[in-house]
Amino acid sequence: MGAPPVAGPKFPESPYLSEVGRRMRDEIIEMLPLLREHAAEGEALGELAPATLEAVHRVGAFKVTIPLELGGSALGARDTAEVVKALGQGDASAGWLVIVSSAARNTLGFDPKARDEVFAGVADWVGPIMFGATVFAPKVGDGRKVDGGYLVKGKWSFGSGSKHAAWGTVGFEYDDEATGERRRAMGILSRDQYEIVDDWHVMGLQATNSNSVRADEEVFVPDYRVVHTSDLPRITEALRGQYSGLAFKHSTIGGMVATTCAFAALAVGIAQGALESFLQQAAKRPPFNLPYSTMAEMASIQVVAGKARATINAAEAVLWRHADEIDRRALAGEEFFPWDEPEITMDLVHQIHECLRVVDGLLLALGSSAVALSNPLQRAVRDIHVVATHGAFRIDPMAEINGRALFGLEPFPMMVALSSPPPGAPPPGAPPRP
């Protein structure tokens, strides 16, 4: 009788998992030994190891949100989550960079000239073609309007993939002389217009190269490479149906929660990879102070493993439920409502933190051998903590947003609640307030 699966039980595959998504996921699972072998190298380099970068490129994962017409696969929410989860089992930084490679999608809403410039070399580009940095942050760069465009300078943080990308999107503010207002915009910079700052020295996800970038002197950004932040919801919605592929059937809110699904999938993948490593190590290591030949014979280790698998299964069930529903509504032409987004996001953020607790527990149960830098368990702990500390995935602020809604209080006018309904009477079809 064969060994039971680490994650299960097995159900029929989702009807929203495409042949392309299945192929990509399965190829990544086949290359997990390579990803694991080079993960420490990527940490030391502060970017994906060359072998990892090439392998992820080869399966097409950096193009999951790029339109079919431009050489991508335009995958839906379920496909993307499956791909990212598989990557998370081997190298969480690779999974993170596949998610944020969706920054290239933003270019599609710019002037067609900008789109054509960015995607001219995408067929042969190894890695994400574009990164985004400090677009919605409280502090962005400074700009001023000039003939034909803007002069922009500043420092922009958290540019994940900046060492691998050919282009970057950054945020800036400028004074609108026509209205006297201070306005925000997003501009596209070419690789020769910014310097990468060596400041990504962190505990986990080190190979994401989420460095700051800066332009100390003003650089010229032509009008066609600029959009105003206030126009982004309209621009994003206008992309719906403009290109082929399920990714371009999602509504604005559907696309937002699909991205959150991808980050939750990364956490599930990290946890599953950690459990696999835990089982392998516990089956070989003798316990410190009990008379068993291996730790796997200890009841306490068996309990930890059993609870871990149950938690991962539960997290996966929530993840797949939401990913499938996003794709179902997209194909059926059904909308998400503004009040759907915070609840779905909370469900997924909760699962990220449940996976974090699993990974922490596995390391504590295995003991001091797990803290060696050569041990993949300690990397999983560090990586998943960095995922969970991202501003969008901190559980208490997200719970507060949801709790306010449950008590019928007005939503906050903040970025994490961009899709929340405005103050006032609930719109038609909204759930009743208590």
Task: Give a quick summary of the entry.
The protein is α+β, with helices and mostly antiparallel strands. Strands 1, 2, 3, 4, 5, 6, 7 and 8 form an 8-stranded mixed sheet that branches. The chain is globular.
Write the layout of secondary structure elements.
Layout: H1 19-30, H2 32-45, H3 50-58, H4 77-88, H5 92-100, H6 103-106, H7 112-119, E1 130-133, E2 141-146, E3 149-159, E4 167-176, E5 181-190, E6 195-196, E7 211-222, E8 226-228, H8 232-238, H9 252-282, H10 299-332, H11 340-366, H12 376-389, H13 395-406
Parallel strand pairs: 1-4, 2-4
Antiparallel strand pairs: 2-3, 3-7, 4-5, 5-8, 6-7
Helix pairs in contact: 1-4, 2-3, 4-5, 4-9, 5-9, 9-10, 9-11, 9-12, 10-11, 11-12, 11-13
Describe the structure.
- This protein is of the alpha+beta class and 434 residues long.
- Among the domains are: 128-228, Beta Barrel (Butyryl-CoA Dehydrogenase, subunit A, domain 2), CATH 2.40.110; 250-427, Butyryl-CoA Dehydrogenase, subunit A, domain 3 (Up-down Bundle).
- The chain has helices at residues 19-30, 32-45, 50-58, 77-88, 92-100, 103-106, 112-119, 232-238, 252-282, 299-332, 340-366, 376-389, 395-406; strands spanning 130-133, 141-146, 149-159, 167-176, 181-190, 195-196, 211-222, 226-228.
- Strands 1, 2, 3, 4, 5, 6, 7 and 8 form an eight-stranded mixed β-sheet that branches.
- Strand 2 (141-146) and strand 3 (149-159) form a beta hairpin.
